[in-house]
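LOG
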Amino acid sequence: MKKKILIISIVLVNIFVGLSFSINKVYGWKVTFSKFQVDKDIYYFDEEIIVDINFDLYFDEDEYGRLSLQIFNASQEVWEGEYYWGFEGHNHHSATLHIDPQEFDHPFNDTNHFMLQWCYCLYKLINGHWVTYIDHLHQPKLEIDVIKHNATCELFNFSNICYGEQLFFNARFFDNNTDTPYQDKIYCENSNLSKVLFNSDYIANQTGEIEVLIKADNYSLGLNQIVFELLGNDNFSNNTFEYSFNVSEQIIPPPNDYPPTEPPNNDEDEGDDEGREDKPESENNLDIIMLAHISLPFITIASVFIIWSLIIFYFIKHYKKKHFKF
């Protein structure tokens, strides 16, 4: 019994010593970072993530390994970089990494949070066998955000329109902060504010522009609306732009030669024009004649009255001298 206990004790001691030796040997290697940084904290989806690294690896004679930079979202790894190997002794690594977010295995939202972390793989010789240890360094770590562009819209030659007319105008979609053009599908809805009249689709060109034709006959009189909706992609967020314009009745202007400034060039019209030029003098003569006709009776009556007044006056004067003389 005592012999069995002694054997078990020896075995346990050997296992404990072996484990202690293995653990010490596993952590015999080390890494020292003198630089691990990014050029900024927030990136657009179409921008490169620039990472500067500078570190040293130290390994014992019976071990070697490698480091690799990995990028994680909230739940899983989305990207892994190249391997940096190290062997017995001192190993130095320095590099500038250019990482493209479009290579990430990740469905992009408007804002996406990522963590940059180092993974090590250590190979160690233990009891004549190479044992592999894989884990992540707890430090250093970096955190970044990758976002989508937020588009704005700029219109050219957009205006109100009269019924029966048509209007060509241009719309440009781009990020106002970076001038990055939107180059994808655009959904267009046309309405008279109470109901949708018709829809159309466009594809923006390399500068982010589309050309739109408005035919007033397709709209209602009064206020109408045109809505541009960016369907969005990995690079741009969804966005909607609404614009109103008025369709009014067409006003027909008078002819350019109204009122006429020159007489028509023909003989008959010239004769009429001559008559129109003499007309003011004829009208004046007619007025004088009419005035004479109207005034003649009054003049005659006045003349007769004056004559009879003189006769009566003369008669009275002589009659008094003849019959009333004392």
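LOG (cont.) second protein
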Amino acid sequence: MRSFALVSVLSAAFLLFAAAAIQINAYPGGVSGYTLKGPSPGCTCHTSSVSSSVSLVISGPQTLQPGETGNYQVLMTYTSTISKGGMDIAASAGTLAKVDNRLKVLNGELTQPSSQNAGSTTLTWLFKYTAPMTPGVQTLYATGCAVKSRWNHAPNFTVTISSANPALALTAPAGGEIWYTGRTGLIKWTSALVNNVKLEYSPDDGVNWTTIIASTTASAGQYSWIIPQISSQNCRVRVSDVSNSQLSSVSPVFTITELAYSYLIEHLHHNNTMGVSQDSGKLVILKGVVTSSAELGDLAFIQDSTGGMALSTADFPQFGSEIKTGDVIEIKGRVQNDFGMTRIDPLVSYMKTDSLKTVTPEAVTIRAILSQQWNGFEEYEDKLVQITGVTVLSSYSLWSADSMYTLTNGTDSIEVYIHESSSLAGTVIPRGQFDLAGLTAQRCGHSPYSSGYLILPRTPDDISNITGIPEENADIPSAFSVLPAWPNPFNPSCTVAYTIQGDALVNVSLFSSSGELVQMLKESYEQQGYHTLRVDAGSLTSGIYFCRVTVKNSEKQIKTAQTIKLMLLK
């Protein structure tokens, strides 16, 4: 009996010791069911009551959409160093997930894989919570210990699972990008409960909108957009729900511009079957020597080693004062067709890089100019050339501005145009043969642009090697003459030109078709020679008018007059 009793006592003692050992080292790899969610909350294996020296706080989004995932944390604070940190996190419904290896999933809850030594008085546990698909209010729970026998519960944290609402958010472009025309831009967005979306763009910061695509699947989340030919620093993209345009998202401002490529000028004179440059419409960068700056008004020319190019400088009135013939410039602009003539219009920018360069006119024949491949390579288009041994078919003694003349070498003939800005206007037309330099151009009134080649001389220096015998006093007009006005018909102004053979009092007046004086345009003493007068009819109505030029010789007191008809079309 004694031995049996002794054995019983020893067995009981062993069982108590083993149980205590198991309880002290219970769940070294984490626990579950210890939060306020469970039926027996608390770390009662260590002590049966919470410790005020330990506090826990859950933080994170308080509202989620059904199925949405939020980021959360539990902050543990202890009055001393946390050396045996443990944690149990639970949710009333939904799914918990770890963020790092300091937590693991156990029975649908989160717990530590091993006790954590924070080395400080605080310890943060990060986790993710995915809401259930049913709207309602859910609760997050947390219970943790800082050291053995020091534990506490976190205040319950409620998360409202709101009713599902459609959502749209544009993510690209994100603002500040530079997108280039003709290339592909990737528009991106996120959506929820939206079937189809509409995409639009605005070049003016949202004032006006143009449709990119009327409807595309929302779940695709992206769309490859071929960027249109616009240039703006105030572009935006908008994505909206096709079934509810009020649900939309607009991008921040970004830039759309065109990528310009550098070319040799020759490349731009290869034409299609209609006589139009194959590069028409392109934004290009060219570099060349200026062969005409302001000699031909707002039509300038440059030339490189391969060819010449005309430039419209109408948008840069200061061009002629800043850039001189012989300067080297780099320009950016768009290739356009103007009645068969390839030119840069508009000119976007220009920069002077050198000066005092000379371009020698290329010696060509009239036949070579006329037989260019208008539907292939127009070799001489916009180039500075020189034709030799030509004569003018004209009975006039002076060149008139804005007038066309015929030049011939006895076999072929070509038109020469005296620009209204050319200093040739009013100078003597050579009699006999001479050499003429100028810029080749084209003015064809129909498509295909297969004809209309002409020469544009710039100054009197473009005429050389006159071999004919000039008339005596050829620079003095042989008689008083009023030349045809240009342009005519006109709107709102035109130029009247006249020559007088001696110093005289000149009166220029404008009359209506009924003979009523409308306006005296000029009355003054003028010297012999060629004169022009600008007629401004901006305040007049459309109709037929007559311009009468009256000349009174100061010596012989002889008074003569000539009248020309003008047509104002508004």
